[in-house]
Amino acid sequence: MEEQLSKPVCRVCRAQPANTAEHFIPQAVGNRGLVNLHVLQQDGTTAVKRCTNGYYEHVLCSKCNSDPCSVYAQAYARLCKAVSRAAGVSTLDNRVSVPLSGFHGQRFVKHLVSMFLCVSPWEPAEEWNDLQAYVMDRSAPLPPSSPRVFLYLNTGNVGRVVPFCCMVELSTSRHVCFVEVSWPPLGVVMAYDWHEKFARMFEVTAWGKLGYKDYVDETLLLPRLRIVSGFPLAYGTRREVEAEEAAKLPAYLFHVPPGSMGPTAVGALLEKRGLR
Ligand SMILES: [Zn+2]
């Protein structure tokens, strides 16, 4: 165990050392240059880490980083660019309409699942074996045990990274387990449980079951949600976020392994000037 903690292995293949600086939010979507990482600590305070070459972590081996993951990242970057182009025009119900054609939806979902594995604290977790196999094998369909995938337009100036977490609303006893990786303009939530917040988001789980070469021709309808804090699944102005917290009394349960091997020990905001 000590050996594993001191020498992290690749989150995808679990075989090779994690020896590459992986920008799982690709540099092509602006994750380069100075990025400030505001890491939420267990006591509720934040610590700021300045990343001068974008935000990256040593979470993949060089083999997985180049093949298959680089192809998946291209699909992610392409969708981000389509969302950026469409962001200025809203539908009547204040969503953004993003037309896609000839888009490799399955590769996009494989990138999201690789991000899921990259941001979560590393420890041997057999329940994620299916997700690792899904990323490694280009033709593998999304396994039934996977989280559902929801998208929204992140209108904030900051991104948010939430490693695998369970939110319990003490006022209602509801819970939802999920990962969130939302770099502007694309918000992504991968969830194992349903929550009313997902109702207006656009679900793309079905893309994960397509073939590697299959195309998606579809128009996404993304709600506009604003991120202002590091608190998971919290959207809107600070006042709105505080009012919701007071009403629902959410508690967040994180798995923090010994030595805090996670890229973000609890949760983080990513701040880059000039992003929208
Ligand atoms: Zn690997």
What does this protein look like?
This protein is an alpha+beta fold. Helices cover 22% and strands 30% of the residues. The chain has helices at residues 2-6, 62-66, 69-86, 105-119, 129-136, 238-248; strands spanning 20-22, 35-40, 46-51, 57-60, 95-103, 148-154, 158-169, 174-182, 186-191, 202-203, 216-225, 250-254, 267-271. Strands 2, 3, 5, 6, 7, 8, 9, 10, 11, 12 and 13 form an eleven-stranded mixed sheet that branches. Strands 1-4 form a two-stranded antiparallel ribbon. The chain binds zinc ion (ZN).
Rg, Cα atoms, Å? 18 Å
Instruction: Give the amount of beta strand, in percent.
Output: 25-35%
Classify the secondary structure makeup into a structural class. alpha+beta
How far the N terminus sits from the C terminus, by CA atoms, comes to 42 Å
Estimate the mean pLDDT confidence. Answer: 88
Number of helices: 6
Low-confidence stretches: 1-5
What is the helical fraction, as a range of percent?
10-25%
Bound small molecules, by name, code or SMILES, are:
zinc ion
- Sheet of most strands: 11 strands, mixed
H/E element sequence:
HEEEEHHEHHEEEEEEHEE
Number of DSSP-assigned strands: 13
Q: Please tell me what the overall shape is.
A: globular
